[in-house]
Every structure is written in structure tokens, then in C-alpha cells.
């Protein structure tokens, strides 16, 4: 008996230890107790994204960056690993490093630094193959983990109806009797209070009567303003792209800070101010808070998606220009090498010989590495987005809260309850910023392997910085709502942005030729040719033949068709099971009503449905002839 008690205590302590090891759990619970599940769902989502990026960083760091650093040729050994002579003087300046040029550009942070040798080091590590497979693996893992999270949420929800006896369940089962910490008890009390507010709001929202014609007019007007805002944003992005192309043709030394960063700043400012306009338009629609949040998220999603794809189209134009420029540079390098060798040989007499011809890597002309340029753009966009977010929090939330707090005593009206008041936490804007930042990570990590690591630093600092800002500078929303069902909505948008982010990357891998003098795929016509090269050199001929047959387009199309049919069948089966569950729930509710009214069927022959209970408590009714197993019956 004593051993059983000690074992039970050990299991309980181990469960507490596991709960204590969950990162930021206490912070998120404190936020949930003060601001409700809607705000806490954002921080849970941020923590989940942190875990995903940690796996991506481990893959890229351990299989790409670390092998190149340990076994690859050192800095200065090749032109791709050396800063050009014309840039050496300013390569270590802060402004150059902040722009991720100079020494940062010629490092393991970007694609162009990596060598194209099949194997490196004493382990004969196949770096080009590893680089390609890790890029594909990151995409596959991201799809897998997002779909798994969505499936888990559906499984946890179970299709159940959590509105049955909602308040009774909350009254009798909300408190945790194992709590022994006063601060934890206060947080739990506040959390229960907030849950009751959310449930009451949900109940009232189902009973509100609306003026249908007025609501329709206001919603039409709000959508008209939204389309105007989206159109204006698209035109502004298009104008900024055209200006950036003009600036790219000018001397960088003649450009100021704004001209160099105009494209990134315009996108960041649009992402900062347009959600506020959408929030104002949403006031006209008078939706339920959860539905209003989803509409707001959808509109901001459309805004940021349009901005992102305009940015990608601008990059594609720049990439095409770089590819054309590479052709000219390649021809000029051939002439340059021939002239240098001819001049070197002419410097010696016919009977004399000199040392081998050598040119320092910093003096060798090189082509514009478009892959590194793409990686730099996404890193810059990520960093500028982080800085814009933090500056917005400091100015828009912290300074505003300080003004309201200290100037309220000497102002003409109540600043806390009037204008400007404390700010509410912008759930929609922060969720969409997190999702689109992750989309940029997925899109740019193939060309900048360091991007997942940079994003980990961003998410780590954001968790502490935004938790502090929420608890110190924000107030709970005036309209509370339950957000437990919105997690899959966030994940659905994340899955969509994952799909849309990987499409341009796959297009670049399959369709565009890699740069001829930088990166692990230089010298090949297409990046995916590294797979065929590996099959040819590292696999037996019979296995290579089988793998080539498996990659036959006819077989691939047949497999895709079978997968589509399987998905359709499983979806139809799931819908049927869900409909059957709903039908059973309706019958159980009817049965509960019969039990409550003490009405029982007179003839068991008319029975269509029966529910068995182990308890005999309901057998007290004298007319119940089926009391032996406590059977309740329903008519068909």
C-alpha cells in the first residue's frame, strides 16, 4: 500500500515537472486569466510556431551550415567566399552589415557562399545533395506538422456540442483543487470569471434581434471601403516596386536610407496601418466578435498576400535581369582570363618559366548571384518587419499608456474611459503578422539557411516583449468571446500561406538556372539535377533505373489520381460519421427530456432506440417494467 501511494505521488510529481518544463506556460496562463482565451490563443500559437522553427533551424544548421563551416574551404579561398576588392574597405561597417552585405553576404548565412564540390571533408559529406534535400525536407515537415496540428484540434474537439449544460459544467468542474499557490489561485479565479463572461456573451449573441436591412447596407458599405483600401494598397506597392527598380540602376552611394529601404518600409507600414482601417470598417458590420475576428483576419490576409505576391513578382523581374547579366559577365570572364594568361605568358622569355598563373580571389570578376540576392531581400524584410513591430508597440502602446496613466489627473476628461484610453491587444494584426512572417521564412530559407535561426530570435524576444506589453500597456477587450475553436482557423491560414509560399520556391528550383559561380548547384542547368548526379555516381545502376521508372510522369499522375480519390472517399466517410453523431445527439437530448418529464413508452414493440445505464436510480418510477437494466426507450 505504501509503495502504491509513493508511486502515485511520483507520477503526480512527474506530471507537475513536465508541466513546469513547458516554455512560458505560467506567462500564458496569467495572460489568459486577465484577457481571456482569445488573447491567450495568440501566445499559444506563437509558442507552437517557435517549436516548428526550432526544428527547421536544427535541420539547416546541422546539415548545411555546420558541415560547410567545419569541412568546407575557408574564407578567402575562392571568389565566392571572398569580399571583392572594391568592397573590402567598407565590408565590416555597421551600415553594410545591417544591410546584410559585406562580410555577412560572403558567409554561411547565404546560398552563394557554399561550394559546389560533390563531397567535402574526411567524411565525404555530400553538401549539394544535403542542401537540396534539407530544403525539400523543411517544406515537407512544415506541411506535416501543420496538418497534424489541425487533425489534433479536430480530434480534441471531437465534433461535440460543448453548449449542453454549459454553465453547469463550468460551475461544478472549473476549479482545480490541487492548486496550492496563492498567485496561481488568483489566476485561476480570474480565468473562471473570464470564461463565464465569454459564455454569457456567446449565449446573448444567439438571442439578439437585428434590423436585417440596415445591417446589410452597413456591411455592403464596409466591404466597399475594404475593396478601396485593398486597391490603394496594391497601387502603392506597385508604385514602390517601380521606384525600387529605378533606384537599383543608380549608384548606391548617391541613395539615402529611405531610398534603399523604401520597398520594405512601405510593406511594413501598410501592414501596420491597414488593419486599423479594417477594424474601423468592422464596427459598421456588427458581427459576433468571433465572426468579426475571422472577417478581419481574412481581409488582412488578402492585403498581406497581395503585398507579398507583388513583392515576389518584383523579385522575379530582378532575377531575370540578373540572369541576363550573368550571361554577359560569363562571356567577359572568359575573355578576361584569356587576356590575363596571354599577358602573363608574354612577360617571360621563350626559354624561361615562371610560377603558375595566380590571381587573388578578391580580384576575380564575378557574376551577380541572384540566389543570394533573394535571400538578402527576405532577411531584410524580416528584420525590418521586426523593428517596425517593436517600434509600434513602444510608441502605440507603451507611450500611449504612460500618457493616459500620468496625464489623466490633470486632463479635461477621463482619459482612461474616453479618448485615447488604453489600447486593446490587436489579435488579428498580430496573428496575421506572425503567419506572414513565417511565410517569408519558408520562402527565403532555401536561399538563406540562417533565416530560421533569425526567426527563432524574433519569436523568442517577441514572447517576452509582447507579454510585457500586454500585461503593462493593454486592457482586456470590451467584447469578450471564446476562441477555442479559432485555433484551426489560424492553422488553416498558415497552411494556405505555406502552400502559396512554397510555390515560388519550387518554381525557382525547377525552372530557373542556378548562378554559374556561386552556390552548391553552380555548373548545373537546374538545381534538381543533383538528384540525378547522385543516382549516377552513388547508387547501383539497377537501383537508379528503378528510381527513374518510379519518377515516370505517367506513374506519378496515376498515384496522384488515387490519392485524390482516397481523400474524397475519406472526406465523404467523415461527413457521414459526423451526421450520424449529430443524429445520436438529438436522440439523446430527446431521451433526456423524456426522463425529466417521467414519461415512458407504453409498448416496447414500438421501440427504435435504447440507452443503457448502469445506475438503477431511475427505477423509482412504479410503472417502469424495464427496471432491471434501467433502459430508457424512445419512439421512432
TrEMBL record:
Positions of transmembrane segments: 50-71, 125-147, 220-241, 296-316, 489-510, 550-570
Membrane association type: Multi-pass membrane protein
Pfam families the record matches: TMC
Keyword Secreted in record: no
Keyword Transmembrane helix found: yes
Signal peptide: none
InterPro entries noted in UniProt: TMC, TMC_dom
MF GO annotations: mechanosensitive monoatomic ion channel activity; voltage-gated calcium channel activity
Assigned keywords, A-Z: Membrane, Transmembrane, Transmembrane helix
Localization of this protein: Membrane
GO biological process: detection of mechanical stimulus involved in sensory perception of sound; vestibular reflex
Domain of life: Eukaryota
All copies of domain TMC, residue ranges: 369-484
Subcellular location, principal: membrane
Any one annotated GO CC term: plasma membrane
Record-stated family: Belongs to the TMC family.
Protein name (Swiss-Prot/TrEMBL): Transmembrane channel-like protein
Species in which this protein is naturally found: Pongo abelii (Sumatran orangutan)
Taxonomic classification: Eukaryota, Metazoa, Chordata, Craniata, Vertebrata
